[in-house]
Amino acid sequence: MPPPAIRIAHDPEANVWYVHRSDVGDMSAEAPTAEALIARIPVTIAAI
């Protein structure tokens, strides 16, 4: 089974990075940097 596809995007108005699209259920996450969001993704997936 391939790993889930997760796309992140930047909201310049709110100045945050967020999960734009994901193969993982109701995944929702945001962070101040792309690196912080990527680091948060495994924890978020484990909580779903």
From TrEMBL:
Residues passing through the membrane, by range: none
Sequence ranges assigned to domain DUF1902 in this UniProt record: 6-46
Superkingdom of this protein's organism: Bacteria
Name of the protein: DUF1902 domain-containing protein
Species this protein is from: Methylobacterium currus
